Amino acid sequence: MTEDERDAAAYAADIGAARDRLIAFASGCSEAQWRAAPLDGDPRPVAVVVDHVADSYEYLAGFIRQILAGQAAEVTGELVDDLNAEHAAAAAAVNQADAAEHLRRSGAAISELIASLSADELAAGDGRVLLFAQIAIRHADNHRTDIETALAAQGLRRV
After folding, report:
1. Candidates 3.40.50.300, 3.30.70.3450, 1.20.120.450, 3.40.50.720; correct CATH number of 3-35+43-151?
2. In 32, 62, 131, 145, which residue has its Cα 20 to 30 A from 115's Cα atom?
3. How do residues 41-51 score in pLDDT, each as one tens digit?
């Protein structure tokens, strides 16, 4: 099946699957892994990065709703950086159970939103709704694999 043949339900399922992989990863982290900041150039600990994905589901869903309402969703690198900085400050002490619950809740919400879309709605905003759905899928997997690789390189392999 090509990207053009996929429907909203398939994208929603992929978001849920990527979220579930991240939850499984996070749930298997030791306390040392959870509090480590293994990513070069990123001072955030694993805890904050994992919860950041849950937070990003919320702002991605907000952007999608804006587009579907006919509003301009002005998404810039500066806006995303600001959202990420605000989140990092607020989530510094997040624990594994809370991060997993946040992922479940926000991941389910964006998955349900995407699944409810028609083909025209998925293509709305000159394809930006679809792009945000694809970002929601990749974001969880990219962070998970980057963290797994960095932890292994630092000798903090997962058990």
Report:
1. 1.20.120.450
2. 145
3. 888 999 999 99
